[in-house]
Write a structure and sequence with these properties.
The protein has 376 residues and is of the alpha/beta class. It folds into two domains: 194 residues, Glycogen Phosphorylase B (Rossmann fold); 174 residues, Glycogen Phosphorylase B (Rossmann fold), CATH 3.40.50. Helix content is 51%, strand content 17%. It contains 15 helices and 13 strands. The strands form two sheets. The chain has a seven-stranded parallel sheet, with helices on both faces. Strands 10-9-8-11-12-13 form a six-stranded parallel sheet, sandwiched between helices. α9 packs across α10 and α9 packs across α14. The longest helix has 28 residues. The protein starts with a helix and ends with a helix.
Length: 376
């Protein structure tokens, strides 16, 4: 018993797993927010991140990194660290990939079996569509997770539906809401580099390819032309995933029939993405974190829903300017854009809604600190 206690007391460090190293600014922003809170809470303890591109992650975030499929390395790290964080995003879902669900459940189970405290931090839950998968989620989360903080109440409803009730479950908000934009001068420099007038009037557009997207390209292009003609807004297509989102933007640009349009393809830091988003008059976004970036900067937004995580976030912040991708029409998108642009004069009200979410977001770090205090 004494030897076990001694070994437990030697544990040090934190291991963080999520959808990192895949070129997605939203996921990298989640990681940045989590790392900031962990460093504030854990001091100089070694932080290790699981990533699809560990070399890039190590340089970008100043951490030790392992490839997310380096199973021997991961298990070895779990034998040493005192806390395992399953960090942010919609990791517990089987809609896009059942294999990813099984992978993340495996890591939760492995971390628990190797003596780590286990925290799911700022997570979205679902959709989990297969009955067998829902039962597996219930078993693993009830047996292996100490605490779960959630980014919106729709995820809380999903956990209740699964029957997950053993971990501490706390409603919080998306960790990205805690981040601040780049300084104005840095944002001006970026815009000049992109050929944008820092004082210009712009419509931000964040798109992604998805089932049914191509059929709606003319509808989205019509709304972008309307914003340009009726409001004088130049479209700026922002790539949340710099590897793939430019393809979706190109499809819309090809339907614009002339006029200026900018497609930002290069990877941007979280701070610069927030900075350039803050210069938009409004944002139309399919991407969840396109909406989170806009909301955090008090920019009026219109959501195009392709996944329940998008509708969940918008409902959580009381945002009604959204529509399912498959129901989107030119009339509905123009109407939502008109209503969003009418809110420009009242950004304080927009910020007030987000400030309430930011206060909830602090629950993420509160639970983190509590687990660190009692971890082995």
């Amino acid at each position: 018993m004494g030897q076990q206690a001694s070994k437990s007391n030697q544990r040090r460090g934190i291991l963080i797993c999520g959808s990192y190293g895949l070129g997605n600014t939203g996921d990298e922003a989640i990681l940045k927010a989590i790392l900031r809170e962990v460093r504030a809470a854990a001091g100089d303890e070694e932080l290790t991140v699981l990533s699809r591109n560990p070399e890039e992650t190590a340089v970008r975030h100043g951490v030790k990194a392992l490839h997310m499929f380096d199973i021997p390395g991961i298990l070895g790290a779990m034998d040493r660290v005192r806390l395992y964080i399953n960090g942010g995003g919609s990791l517990i879902q089987d809609a896009t990939s059942r294999r990813s669900l099984l992978y993340y459940l495996f890591t939760l189970r492995a971390a628990h079996s190797r003596g780590c405290r286990v925290l799911m931090y700022g997570c979205g839950i679902g959709p989990v569509e297969r009955l067998g998968d829902a039962a597996l989620v219930r078993r693993v989360l009830n047996r292996c997770v100490d605490a779960i903080t959630l980014r919106e109440d729709a995820s809380l409803a999903e956990l209740k539906r699964f029957g997950v009730d053993k971990p501490e479950i706390v409603l919080a908000a998306d960790p990205v809401l805690s981040l601040q934009p780049a300084a104005p001068g840095e944002t001006d420099a970026l815009m000049a580099q992109l050929g944008l007038d820092p004082g210009g009037a712009y419509l931000g557009v964040c798109l992604r390819t998805w089932r049914g997207f191509e059929a709606k390209v003319p509808v989205i292009a019509e709304a972008v032309r309307y914003a340009r003609d009726a409001y004088g807004l130049t479209p700026v297509f922002l790539s949340v995933n710099h590897i793939t989102d430019g393809d979706a933007a190109d499809l819309v640009v090809s339907h614009l029939k002339g006029g200026p349009a900018f497609v930002v393809r290069e990877p941007l830091s979280s701070e610069l993405m927030l900075g350039i988003t803050s210069r938009m008059q409004a944002v139309i976004s399919m991407r969840l974190h396109g909406l989170v970036f806009a909301a955090g900067q008090g920019v009026p937004l219109v959501g195009i829903i392709y996944d329940p995580k998008v509708s969940g976030f918008l409902a959580y912040m009381g945002q009604e300017l959204c529509q399912d991708l498959d129901k989107l029409t030119g009339d509905s998108l123009r109407d939502m854009l008109d209503r969003a642009l009418a809110l420009r004069a009242d950004r304080d009200s927009l910020r007030a809604a987000v400030d309430a979410l930011r206060r909830l977001e602090e629950n993420n770090s509160t639970v983190l600190r509590r687990l660190l205090e009692v971890s082995p």
